[in-house]
Specification:
The complex is a heterodimer of chains A (65) and B (169).
Chain A: H1 18-22, H2 34-37, H3 41-56
Chain B: H1 2-7, E1 22-29, H2 34-49, E2 53-73, E3 76-91, H3 97-106, E4 110-118, H4 157-168
Antiparallel strand pairs in B: 1-3, 1-4, 2-3
The chains are: A mainly alpha (65), B alpha+beta (169).
Chain lengths: 65, 169
């Protein structure tokens, strides 16, 4: 991930924050690996939950072909 | 862990000390209701929430969905590619959530909804400042400890053997 987009810590991530969530998705809409996002385990779990909520609410796609 | 520790204390404390859980409901309203009809649906949701404390609210705004949502109503399949998305954050007791979810399921103007347990603070992702364990080292360069200077020069064979014997025991 580019350094300017890199966020070392956030206490929580909001599922409505689509712009932020999209930074952690690859072009296919998949969640990036931890080694790519550089997040802590807890933050990666928070991200994963937020992405799944955003997908359910059709804010981000499940898959991009 | 801290919560558990608090739980072991005698419950003579006032019930006000018990925190009311914070929830957030996010919902999509079908575009057919139009700009004027949206507020009526929001009012319906707020009515079910009742006299709970409303912490924050996002006014429903029309947005295009990331994928087409299909819904079967009365034997007819409806497709939606846009909807009004709104949200309400509120504090209420856990028992009231089931009624809200039931209402959202049965309201045909609500296309899709989600109820989540959250926190009172705004959780927009503000990057946090790096935290140091102690202020002592902040802004300072850690220096290597000073070492005694080694002396060079010739060493005799016997002194060398003595030193080796001392090391090997």
């Amino acid at each position: 991930m580019a350094k300017d987009n890199y966020i070392p810590q956030f206490s929580r991530i909001d599922y409505k924050d689509v712009e932020m969530i999209k930074k952690f998705l690859n072009p296919h809409g998949k969640i990036m690996a931890r080694r790519r996002t550089g997040l802590s385990a807890a933050n990666q779990r928070a991200l994963s939950e937020a992405v799944k909520r955003a997908r359910f609410m059709a804010l981000v796609p499940y898959i991009v072909r | 862990m801290a919560e558990k520790a608090q739980g072991t204390e005698p419950s003579s404390q006032a019930p006000a000390a018990v925190k009311t859980p914070i929830y957030e409901v996010g919902f999509h309203i079908v575009p057919a209701v139009g700009d004027d009809g949206v507020q009526a649906v929001v009012d319906k949701i707020r009515k079910v929430i009742g006299n709970a404390e409303i912490i924050a609210e996002g006014v429903p705004a029309k947005m295009s969905l990331a994928y087409t949502i299909e819904r079967a109503t009365q034997g007819k399949r409806e497709k939606f590619s846009e909807a009004y998305f709104g949200w309400i954050k509120f504090a209420t007791e856990r028992e009231n959530i089931a009624a809200l979810e039931e209402m959202l399921r049965n309201t045909k103007e609500v296309l899709r909804s989600i109820v989540i347990n959250t926190v009172r603070e705004d959780i927009s992702t503000q990057p946090r400042r790096a935290v140091f364990a102690s202020d002592r080292l902040e802004g300072e360069t850690i220096k290597a400890p000073a070492r005694a200077k080694e002396e060079g020069g010739e060493v005799s064979e016997t002194d060398l053997n003595k030193s080796i014997d001392a090391l090997t025991g």
